[in-house]
Amino acid sequence: VQLVESGGDLVQSGGSLRLSCAASGFTLSSYWMHWVRQAPGKGLEWVSRINSGGATTYYTDSVKGRFTISRDNAKNTLYLQMNSLESEDTALYYCATENFGSWGQGTQVTVSS
């Protein structure tokens, strides 16, 4: 099982980014998937999850209306579209499989105010 995140960058407040999580070694379509982040000096914070088919999604309150999780099972890839970014969104963003059994290495998102 391997998860590789990409798409992190330095962006100004109010900007947008799309993160990707490429999965290999397993069939992504069989699993719920999560995005989790860790801000500098803080613990892990769950951000969002999506069911195996992509029809059901959940978000932490602080990103509702700004972030959208999605997946392309044919491409074995998970996404996180992030709009209206705020400095508080600065963090290392990880994707993880259901039950948090496997994690990627993370991709850094930095939002400048």
What does this structure look like?
- The protein is mainly β.
- The chain is 0% helix and 50% strand.
- It is built from no helices and ten strands.
- It has strands at residues 2-6, 10-12, 17-24, 33-38, 44-50, 57-59, 67-72, 77-82, 91-97, 107-112.
- The strands form two sheets. It has a six-stranded mixed β-sheet, with no helix packed on it.
- The termini are far apart.
- 31% of the residues are buried.
User: Low-confidence segments, ≥5 residues, pLDDT <50?
Assistant: none
- In total, the number of strands is 10
Order of the strands making up the biggest sheet: 2-10-9-4-5-6
Q: How many helices does DSSP assign?
A: 0
* Element-by-element helix/strand order: EEEEEEEEEE
What portion of residues is helical? under 10%
Major beta-sheet overview? 6 strands, mixed
Mean pLDDT: 97
Report the span from N to C terminus.
37 Å
The radius of gyration computed from the alpha-carbon positions, rounded to a whole number of angstroms, is 13 Å
Shape: globular
Strand content: over 45%
* Structural class by sheet pairing and helices: mainly beta
